[in-house]
Structure formats: structure tokens, C-alpha cells
Amino acid sequence: MSLIEFEQWEDAFELLNPLNNFTFERQRVRVFRDPLLGHTSVYNPAIEDGLKVFLGDVDEAWLKKLAEDTEQNCLFCSARQHLLARYPDGFIDAGDVRVGEALAFPNLFALAGSHSVAIISRKHFLRLEEFDPALIRDAFLALQNVARASDRKNPDYRWLSVHSNYLPPAGASQLHPHFQMLASSQPYQHQAQLAAACQQWQSRHGEPYHACLVKEEQEKQSRYIAATGPWHWLAAYAPLGSNELMGIHETQGDFLELSYEDISQLAAGLSHVLAYFGHLGYFSFNFSLYALRHAEKEDGFSCVIRVMTRQNPAPNYRGDDFYLQKGLSSELMLAHPEVLATGARGFFNN
Asked: Could you tell me the keywords of this UniProt record (predicted)?
């Protein structure tokens, strides 16, 4: 018997559609509830037929010009990196951390007790299929080195997360590709909800929720995509963002305890995901990786990364977060998770 309940329900909506000569139409609106956290996501198959309303056409000539114009004064490009903030002596004596092309340094305007940025590439602009695993790996390794320094100075900063906002629709103030890492003594809302739910599940069932989820999704196969080493990749049943794909570590919940191979396989999987999103016609994305310092077995916590697409950049674009997300804490699903998983599998076989 399944421990996880994949709950959903459906309502019908009727209209005379002006796009089809006012023909009578009945649409099916399906709502998915996340089995662990209880948030809801909304799916209407009719949206896939009109996806460009939500995705928007990409003006590649305009995007190329935007990249060229912003490169002239980009602080993250090599010629101006000497102007970036530096870590004080005694924290990281070199002032920053360099691994390959990656450069990690303190954020000028912190959002946590420890807030770092990692530039991932010398190139000012990358298409999604150009996010090479080695670039991603080295950025994570640079941030892991900063996290170790932060842990030495502030061992109570247990709550750690790594994020990316790529391009303006994803909230990036700098176009140059980069990641950000937060560490703090207290959790932000989603971290607290996730940790509490994982601990409750572990206490109730004697095994971690995400291990149960991976096992059930592997058996079902419809949303399970592939594994890269200890990371399991699947399409989110009730996504927190559009086209969300998740990566789940089999056992480890502590970012500082991830090995070089763990991070290499995380980078490989994330690279596959971004290449798939690029294939679908997306340019902008967010991801969030959640981790818990000193995660114990009774915490039932695993490292989880959620990767999602955002509105494509254009001279005039609308934000893709609206009342559904902000007021109802529900996400609009642009594609069915089983369809996403089917498409993504091919990118993990390359």
C-alpha cells in the first residue's frame, strides 16, 4: 500500500469561445495537492494549446543586444571583478574563492547572516544548453568552501540554501550568470515548513519522506526521469513553479557533507534539466536547493533542488507571478508533470 497520497480533483468550466467562433467549450480545471506540504498547483489542458500567451515569443536579436549592452558595465565580468565586495581577513583571507571559472564573494546587500554570490562563467551570457556541468560544479564547490568558512565562524547558521535567478524575468539584477547562497540561524518560511514536514513524516513512518517519494515515483515511472549518481530527478507532482523538475539526494541533507562526486552529479543533472528547458524554448529560470547543516537521521531531511522556468525575456513582458501564486499560494502548471518527465528523460541519456 502506498504511503504517499497523490491527491487531485477536477472542476469543469463552460464558455462560448470567441477564438473558435463562439463555439461551446468545456474546459477541465485540475488541481494537484503536494503530498508533503499541502500546497496546490492548477492545470488546465487548454493552456498548452495557448502556451505562447504565457511563454511569450523570444526576440533573440533584442536579447543579444541586451547582453552586449549590459556587458559594457558588468561588474561580474573579469575586467571589473576587482570592484566586487570581498570577505574580511579571518573569514576567507584571500578575500574571495576561485574554483575554475567560478568566483564566490559576499553579496553587497545581504538577505541573510551569510549571503554569497558565485559567478559561474567568464561569459556574460549563456543559453540554457551552455550551462556546462563543469561550470555548475565549480560554482557549487566555491560556495561550499564559503559555507565551510561560515560554519567555522557561525556554527548556529544551520539553514542553508543555494539559488539562481537567471535573466530579469527570474528576478536577476545582473544578467551575467550567477548563483547565490544564504545561511542563517533561523529558517525562512518554506525552509521551516519543509523541515517540519520531513521530521513529522520521519517520526510517523520511520523513513524519510523523500526516500519514499523516490521509491514510489520509480515504481510508477510516469514522473520519474533518471538518476545522476545519488541524485534522483523527477517532475514535481504539485510544482512550486512552472515546468518544475526536482533533484533529490538519496541520503544526504547537509550541503557541507556533499562530496566532490555528489556535487559533480548534481551539476550533471542540473545541466540536463537546463538543456531540456532550452529545448522547450525557455531562456529564464530559477532554482532553489534546500539543505540543513548537521542534518540527523531523525530530521528525515534530504537535499532537494527545485528547478523551474520563468517568463521569457522580451522588451515588454508581464511577470509570471500573479494572484494565483502571491495570493493563493498555488502555481499555474504550463505542462502536465508526466509529459515533462517524458521529455526530460532524453536529455539525461546524452
From this structure: Nucleotidyltransferase, Transferase
* Residue entry with cell 545519488: 230
- Please name the residue ranges forming H helices in 206-247: 209-220
Report CA torsion sign: 201, 202, 203, 204: positive
How far is it, in rounded angstroms, from Cα 217 to Cα 211?
10
Say which amino acid occupies 97. V
Strand order in the sheet with 102-106: 97-99, 102-106, 114-119, 178-184, 159-166, 285-292, 304-309, 242-249, 231-235, 224-228
Can you list the positions of beta strands (E) in the chain?
7-17, 23-33, 40-43, 97-99, 102-106, 114-119, 159-166, 178-184, 224-228, 231-235, 242-249, 285-292, 304-309, 330-333
Give the Cα separation of 292 and 285 in Å (integer).
Answer: 24
Instruction: Reply yes or no on whether the pLDDT at 331 is more than 80.
Output: yes
Q: C-alpha cell of 265?
A: 552529479
Q: Where are the domains of the chain?
A: 7-49, 54-348
CATH 3.40.50.1000 fits 54-348, yes or no: no
**Cα within 13 Å of Cα(322), Cβ side:** 6
pTM over the 0.85 mark? yes
User: Which residue's C-alpha cell is 501564486?
Assistant: 325
Query: Shortest CA distance to 294 belongs to which of 242, 239, 252?
Result: 252
According to DSSP, the β-strands at 178-184 and 159-166 are antiparallel
Q: State the pairing for strand pair 102-106/114-119.
A: antiparallel
pLDDT digits (tens, 9 = 90+) for 82-141: 999 999 999 999 999 999 999 999 999 999 999 999 999 999 999 999 999 999 999 999
**Sign of the Cα pseudo-torsion (325, 330, 334, 338, in order):** positive
